[in-house]
Specification:
Layout: H1 2-32, E1 38-39, E2 43-44, E3 57-59, E4 63-67, E5 72-73, E6 82-88, E7 91-97, H2 99-104, E8 118-121, E9 130-143, E10 150-155, E11 159-166, E12 180-193, E13 197-229, E14 238-271, E15 276-280, E16 285-292, E17 295-302, E18 318-323, E19 328-333, E20 354-355
Parallel strand pairs: 3-11
Antiparallel strand pairs: 1-5, 2-4, 4-8, 6-7, 6-9, 9-10, 9-11, 12-13, 13-14, 14-15, 15-20, 16-17, 17-18, 18-19
Length: about 350
C-alpha cells in the first residue's frame, strides 16, 4: 500500500514537471517567434544647437534633429542586427545601422549605429517649408544555410513627425543655409578572406554641407518687327508684323546644395574561426589592412614616430599583425629595416589585439 502511494506521488510530480517544462518552452518559442515586438519612439532630438525648442519648427538655413533612441524591444535584442529607415515626405532618405539590415531593404547603411540622430535642413532630402519625417526600426537576422535555415525579421510601426522651415525677412528670395558639419561613426570597408577571416574598418566621418547661389537657365523671347507684303513682288499692299524669337537666357537664381565627406579610420573589427577581435588605433596612427590569401596582414604606422599614413617607411616606428584562422602574430619595426617579434628600440606604447 505504501509503495503504491509513493508511485502515484512520483508519477504526479513527473506530470507537473513536464507540464511546467512545456509551458516554459512554449513561452520561449512565443517570445522568439511571432510575438517579438519593436516599440518605436520617434522624437525631436535634444541637442541645443538644433531646433532648441524641440518642436520641429526652424527658420530656413537651420537644422532640425530627430532620434529613435528611446525605442524598445521586448526581447534581448542583438543591436548589431538593427537598422532604422528614414523617409522625408514619403521618399526614402537614409538607412542607419546594420549593413545587412539596410541591404535587406535595398539600401546602403550611412551610419554604423541604428539610433544615430537624423538631421534635416531646408533643401536636404528634398525638404521644403512643410515636411513629414517618418522612421521605422527593423531587426534582420537570417540564414540561407540549407542545413539550418531561419529568419528572424521584425518591423516596428512607422512613426511620423512634422518638420517646418519658416521664411524670415532675411531669407526671402534666395535663402542660403549656413555651412555646417555632421560627424558620425561609419563602416568604410568590409571584406572576407575565404571563409575563415572577415574584417571591417570603422572611421570617424565628417560630412560638410553648404549652399551656393547659381543661375537658372531658361527660355526668353526677343521681339522683332518686320515688314510683310501680301502682293509680292509688287509690294504695294504691305504691313508690319511683330514676331518673337526664342533664345536661352538666365531667368533667375537658385540655391544648390553641396556635400563633402572626409573620413579618418579609427578601428578594425576582425572575426576569425575562434573569436571577434579589435584593433583600436584612433590615437596611435593609422593601420592599413592587406589581404594575403586567407590571412589578414595589418600594417600600423605611428603618427608619433612617423607620418601616420598607414604606410611603413624606413626610419618610422611601425607594427605588423598577421591574423589567420586560428592565431594572431605581432611584430615590431623601429631601428631595423625588417619586422621582428621583439625590438628593444621600440619605445612607443604598443597596440594590442583586443577580444570583444
Amino acid at each position: 500500500m505504501h509503495n503504491s502511494f509513493s508511485s502515484k506521488k512520483i508519477f504526479s510530480l513527473i506530470i507537473v514537471t513536464l507540464f511546467c517544462s512545456a509551458f516554459l518552452i512554449v513561452s520561449a518559442i512565443a517570445i522568439t517567434g511571432q510575438n517579438k515586438r519593436i516599440d518605436i519612439s520617434l522624437e525631436y532630438g535634444s541637442k541645443p544647437e538644433y531646433d532648441p525648442d524641440d518642436n520641429g519648427v526652424e527658420t530656413v538655413g537651420n537644422i532640425i534633429d530627430f532620434t529613435v533612441g528611446g525605442s524598445s524591444f521586448n526581447w534581448d535584442v542583438d543591436y548589431t542586427s538593427v537598422c532604422t529607415k528614414w523617409s522625408v515626405n514619403t521618399e526614402t532618405a537614409a538607412c542607419y545601422g546594420s549593413i545587412a539590415c539596410c541591404n535587406f531593404i535595398s539600401m546602403i547603411s550611412e551610419s554604423v549605429n541604428w539610433d544615430d540622430p537624423f538631421y534635416l535642413s531646408y533643401g536636404r532630402h528634398g525638404a521644403s517649408n512643410s515636411n513629414i519625417v517618418s522612421a521605422k526600426v527593423i531587426h534582420v537576422d537570417y540564414s540561407l544555410n540549407p542545413v539550418d535555415p531561419y529568419d528572424d525579421i521584425v518591423y516596428s510601426k512607422e512613426s511620423l513627425l512634422s518638420a517646418s522651415f519658416e521664411e524670415t525677412a532675411e531669407s526671402e528670395g534666395i535663402a542660403l543655409m549656413e555651412p555646417f558639419e555632421i560627424s558620425i561613426e561609419k563602416e568604410v570597408d568590409k571584406s572576407s578572406l575565404g571563409s575563415t577571416v572577415q574584417f571591417s574598418e570603422l572611421a570617424n566621418c565628417k560630412t560638410r554641407y553648404w549652399e551656393t547661389e547659381e543661375p537658372v537657365v531658361g527660355m526668353c523671347q526677343k521681339e522683332k518687327t518686320k515688314k510683310v507684303c501680301d502682293d509680292e513682288p509688287i509690294n504695294l499692299s504691305c504691313h508690319e508684323e511683330t514676331v518673337f524669337r526664342d533664345y536661352s537666357c538666365i531667368t533667375g537664381t537658385k540655391a544648390v546644395l553641396h556635400t563633402e565627406e572626409t573620413c579618418e579610420s579609427k578601428e578594425l573589427e576582425i572575426t576569425n574561426a575562434n573569436e571577434r577581435l579589435k584593433i583600436d588605433f584612433e590615437t596611435w596612427g593609422k593601420c592599413t589592412p592587406i589581404e594575403e590569401e586567407e590571412d589578414l596582414v595589418v600594417i600600423c604606422d605611428s603618427k608619433y614616430d612617423g607620418n601616420g599614413d598607414g604606410i611603413c617607411q624606413s626610419g618610422e616606428s611601425c607594427m605588423k599583425f598577421i591574423i589567420s584562422e586560428n592565431w594572431v602574430q605581432r611584430y615590431f619595426k623601429n631601428s631595423k629595416d625588417v619586422f621582428t617579434s621583439t625590438d628593444e628600440s621600440f619605445f612607443l606604447e604598443k597596440l594590442e589585439v583586443m577580444t570583444e
